[in-house]
């Protein structure tokens, strides 16, 4: 600025006044702090103590037991798995809402489990594949490992385990076979009736329809299929499945890879053998048909895509083909395919109770009607096994 110059004496007086004002303000500030916070030195000591406590906690965490640290890591891992399953469920619901048709005008039905939240909740639905001629087999199960009457209802209510014999109808609807089944159903109330014509060469269709129907009736975490000539320990099954409840997509059973049989007239002949490469090739890995289980998302996937899922001659191969191209965890659990006594008996005595027992030579318990009680007494977990299971 241009103007009259200020004298040196005036500048000296201005500086002195500024110094005195600053001293006064500083004095008042220190006094105020002294009254409110005792003393600056004391505050410094308190802060030092807090830092010391924090440092002590860090040291304690660093010096913690390995098992405690691993426990925290395990909890975090489980939380991540739970989040993955939640995301998978949301993805499936989104797919259901988006997918109303697939090419060529094929309409897909939305499973009620994703649109109706009033469905009965369950831990697992167990469908026992049976036929019209298998009344004695069904009775052998009711007399051994399968609860009946009020116990069956209690099992559903308290443990979330639903068990039903799965069957369709005869070629002549309302005939003698259907009426006999109606009478049996009225007596035991343990059937899941499908809109399906029974027949050996229709097992792939029946399996597909079973999962679709079960999903529309129960909102379960797992869906299991088992044959009516297999011995099952319900407690061990539930405990085994519970290990995978945080996984989004699980396919569990005894995985195998049998030969593709191209010769006509032989059992398990595969008419579409040419799809699997050269003669002598094997199928892709899949669970054996006596018993297997899948998680909720996979059952919903089958229900959604049911009209366009290809059916091979063998039911277990068909199911494996539906899942082979998906992001699915295949669990090979050999406790689900133990032999009958003495195999399952030795394992039970050693504390390794089997989930399921059957004879490979018969694709089930050989002469199951006569032998099921014997297998149950030798290899069963006990009638209280399922009620003592914590899952």
TrEMBL record:
DUF4094 domain sequence ranges: 7-99
Recorded coiled-coil stretches: 73-100
Cofactor field: Mn(2+)
Assigned EC number: 2.4.1.-
Subcellular location: Golgi apparatus membrane
GO cellular component: Golgi membrane
Pathway: Protein modification; protein glycosylation
UniProt keyword Disulfide bond present: no
Any matching Pfam family: DUF4094
Keyword terms: Coiled coil, Glycosyltransferase, Golgi apparatus, Manganese, Membrane, Signal, Signal-anchor, Transferase, Transmembrane, Transmembrane helix
Transmembrane segments annotated in the record for this chain: none
Assigned protein family: Belongs to the glycosyltransferase 31 family.
Protein name: Hexosyltransferase
Native source species: Gossypium raimondii (Peruvian cotton)
């Amino acid at each position: 600025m241009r103007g009259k110059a200020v004298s040196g004496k005036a500048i000296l007086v201005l500086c002195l006044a500024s110094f005195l004002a600053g001293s006064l303000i500083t004095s008042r500030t220190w006094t105020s702090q002294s009254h409110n916070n005792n003393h600056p030195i004391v505050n410094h000591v308190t802060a030092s103590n807090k830092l010391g406590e924090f440092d002590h906690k860090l040291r304690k965490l660093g010096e913690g037991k390995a098992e405690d640290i691993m426990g925290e890591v395990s909890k975090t891992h489980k939380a991540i798995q739970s989040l993955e399953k939640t995301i998978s469920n949301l993805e499936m619901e989104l797919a259901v809402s988006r997918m109303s048709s697939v090419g060529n005008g094929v309409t897909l039905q939305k499973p009620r489990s994703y649109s109706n939240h009033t469905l009965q909740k369950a831990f697992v639905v167990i469908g026992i594949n049976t036929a019209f001629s298998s009344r004695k087999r069904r009775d052998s199960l009711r007399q051994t490992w399968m609860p009946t009457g009020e116990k069956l209802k209690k099992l559903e209510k308290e443990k979330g385990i639903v068990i039903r014999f799965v069957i369709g109808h005869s070629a002549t609807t309302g005939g003698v076979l259907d009426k006999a089944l109606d009478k049996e159903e009225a007596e035991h109330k343990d059937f899941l009736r499908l809109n399906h014509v029974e027949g050996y060469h229709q097992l792939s269709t029946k399996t597909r329809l079973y999962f679709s129907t079960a999903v529309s009736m129960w909102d379960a975490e797992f869906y299991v299929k088992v044959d009516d000539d297999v011995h099952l320990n319900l407690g061990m099954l539930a405990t085994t499945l519970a290990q995978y409840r945080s996984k989004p997509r699980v396919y569990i059973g005894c995985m195998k890879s049998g030969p593709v049989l191209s010769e006509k007239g032989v059992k398990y002949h595969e008419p579409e053998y040419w799809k699997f490469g050269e003669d002598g090739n094997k199928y892709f890995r899949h669970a054996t048909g006596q018993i297997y289980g899948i998680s909720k998302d996979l059952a919903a996937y089958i229900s959604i895509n049911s009209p366009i899922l290809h059916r091979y001659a063998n039911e277990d191969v068909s199911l494996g083909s539906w899942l082979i191209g998906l992001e699915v965890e295949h669990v090979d659990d050999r406790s689900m395919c133990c032999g009958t006594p003495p195999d399952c008996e030795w394992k039970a005595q050693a504390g390794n109770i089997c989930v399921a027992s059957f004879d490979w030579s018969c694709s089930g318990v050989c002469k199951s009607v006569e032998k099921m009680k014997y297998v149950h007494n030798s290899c069963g977990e006990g009638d209280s096994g399922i009620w003592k299971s914590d899952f």
